[in-house]
User: What shape does this take?
Amino acid sequence: MILQRFRNFFGKWLSPPQRDETLLRRSFQEHYKIFRSLLTANNNALELIAEMEQALNSGRPFGMTFVHSHCTALSFQVYKMIQRVQELSDNRYGGLIQAFREVSYNMEAILAAQPVIAGGPFILEMNQIDRRSADQAGEKMANLGEIANRAGLPVPDGFVISAAAANHFITANNLQDEINRRMTICNLDNLEELYRTSAAIHGLITMAPMPEDLDRQMHDAYRRLAERLGEQPLLAMRSSALGEDSGNASFAGQYRTQLHVEEEMMAQTYKEILAGMYKSQAIVYRLQRGFRHQDVIMCVGCLAMVDAKVGGVMYSRSPTDPRSPYVVISAVPGLAGQVVDGRVDTDIYEVRREPPYGIMALKLRRGADKEILSDDQAGELCRIGVRLEEHFGSPQDIEWSINQQGAVVLLQSRPLGQASIVETAVLTTPRPSEEDTLFAGGVAACRGVAAGPVYVVRASLDLLQFPKGAVLVVEHPLPEWATLLSRAVAVVSETGQVAAHLATVSREFGIPALFGIPGVAGKLENGQVITVDATGGRVLSGRREELLGEPAPQPDLMKGSPVYKVLEQVLELVAPLNLTDPASLYFRPSACKTFHDLTRFCHEKGVSEMFSFGSKYRFDEKAAKQLVGETPFQWWVIDLDDGFIEGYDRHEKFIRIEQIVSPPMLAIWEGMTAIPWEGPPPVSIRGFGSIIFQSTMNRELDPSVRSGMTNRNYFLVSSNFCNVSVRLGYHFAMVEAHVSHLLTENYVSFQFKGGAADENRRYIRVQLLKDILERFGFRVEQKVDALTARIEKKPGPFLQSRLKIIGYLLIHTRQIDMVMDEQVKVEQYRKKIVTDIEETILQPEEPPAAEN
Amino acid sequence: MGENPKILFVDDEPDFLETTIKRLVRRGYEARTATNCDEAMVVLGSGWPDVVVLDVMLAGKDGIQCLQEIKKEWPRMTVIMLTGHASMGAGIKGLECGANEYCMKPIELDELLEKITIAWHEAFSSAKKQ
Assistant: This one.
């Protein structure tokens, strides 16, 4: 490749027609501007690719907006590179457009893929559904149908308004495009914007008219239910989203449930529940868990209200220990929903799983002198819990009621989430009170320790002011506070326990949560720094470093989610680099299968077009100036624009280093010359044999094909740019840098390949280089014996210090591949290189390691 | 070519415009706003701006149509597309219609200013040779 460049550059040196010097220089500068534009686009494209890869690996949440906007921005930059390289080359690479179209077409197909909506009826009766109906009835109702129709346990009678109905409602009112538009322009980091978007979409849905056919079928279903029951029932209308309650994502309390609904309010309530998909906490939750809003389809269960005497939640296994012999039951007088809302304190029972189902532990709700459940009732619930676990094949989280007649009715059963199992403690492990303990006791809704300033939230208005990194302090752990869990470091609540929805979501997000601390919201002041020790059941004043220790690893909430999968598929068309060797026959447009390939190809050709300028248009002056002075090798320098000092005579054949005004080149040079090269390492017979063997195998190393030109090393420079292609010994390296006061266009990139030794030794040398470059802040990719390293968007002095390191490495890693089979030598070189860099190459005030 | 380019923002989100303009003025930039294409054309007609920052998703005439109108009248005007939600097709169409740069919303103001400066310099240096 480089050989070709030199042939291009000098091969036709004498033949092309001579042009007017001023015109020629102008033409050259024009080429250089296009080249600069190509480099800027290349830089932007590589940065976008890196951001996409980081998003996939970081575990931090991202939404479809992130994926869409990155794909669009990336395609813009890649297409710009193609345009530029075409301009530079007089449209020589037409195949690039076709390759670009193929990649973009496939990407757009991935981005546009829509969920398949199940067809079928708008209404499903409870006796028609079971677990297999999830794609029509939603997870929650499908499970409830399973309980009634397959497990034979009691559930309320009712019907489900299906996924097909929800789709019909949205389509008939033409809402989806407007919802998508509003969702994509919303900056979800801005709570005010989030609430505004949420309210606007809520308005769109609730104000839309009910399609007549759907309305009629709902009322027909209600009348059939009334006939079966022999009365006009009040309804509990419950969200049952597709994808809700699946796997590890609980969607706990994110959507709406409306109780005591009369027939005439059914249609309006249906719309309210559909709109509940866009409640702020639901939007944030989906973002955090990697669900696309268009993937969530809201079915609605309409169940006859249970006149509940007692209600609650039951875990078929202890949340702390999946093998425990207990069922854990929380109970309150009245409706079960109060438990998950977290507004009231509950009785907690631990009941042995085998007959006669004895109560092994009991904690009464505050102020109560007697338990709510009789031994028989607790036993009956426990029996049902074990039965459901057996039926569904995994521990279950069950919502239940006992009606006025004393019969148990089941309202919901879903898998007890992994997060609940691993991280929960029903009761805290009390640690001794200390002088600065502000509160003690409560239950650890999610274990862990965190510290931050207090922020008390009592009303929705308070939410908007909630600062990132604060401790969320509330009176009740209401589900709507979940909006703040992506911003809070810990949660403290006056009421509530482990079964509250907010507790479930805290565990999913790994946010320490301590519930059941009476009076806490009234006694803490905003801004006061506290440490929440949820595991130890304490709130302490100040920041207690000794308790904080190592922060617990955050759970990776995104992996495997729908949005994650979309990005993963898109990245297959973006990130892999198939074109690594410019000398290969396959280094051509039709071989570009990814955006990375296209950027690589365009960059390579852009550089070579700059080199070949001289072959197309003869310079009057000699463009390449030989560098003179005490230099270890011979170097030539080509000025692209303004890289030589003013007044330099361009007819000169030679140039001195002090006549060059390209800070990036000078930095590389300084690194190259700071420490004299000690010469090649002493090589054993084995190492020498390896070189001879490689020389016979590798045509590039054959002296008979090397011309004088290939031994020349060139710097292309301007006042803020430098590209140097180097062949020192048997390896090839290219360094390129742009250094200016604009951070966004600053970068250093370094490519390195080859060597004379066998593949294994070359690999070890590249591995050593990778370690060292990473140590000093480079992002490095390695493929066998080839390496690319980059740093972007850093200030000039930082980049210059890194260029010095590269200059040093270019000289001092020469030929060391030959001794890379000896571990001791590898370590010796590593130590010497790091010491040289830290003590000599970097000045004392320069950034020593990978800090930014 | 003054030190800082004069910037016209064309966007139909008033909140975005208001905050951006305030912050730009605080940094010593001259900036104006237009909420649709017709307004933008009037400001451009006065010969005031150096750079146009254009949202792709405008109400009325969309950003691409607006870009076409701008480039028809003022082919050398530096235009930067700024959007949170354009399709890949719209991005390419913008480039083919002469957009100089493409940025994603949300964007840090410093980064936007640098992109503006780079695109402006790039366009200016090629324009001066035309």
Summary: DSSP finds five helices and five strands in chain B. The radius of gyration of chain B is 13 Å. The helical segments of chain B are 14-26, 37-45, 63-73, 88-96, 109-127.
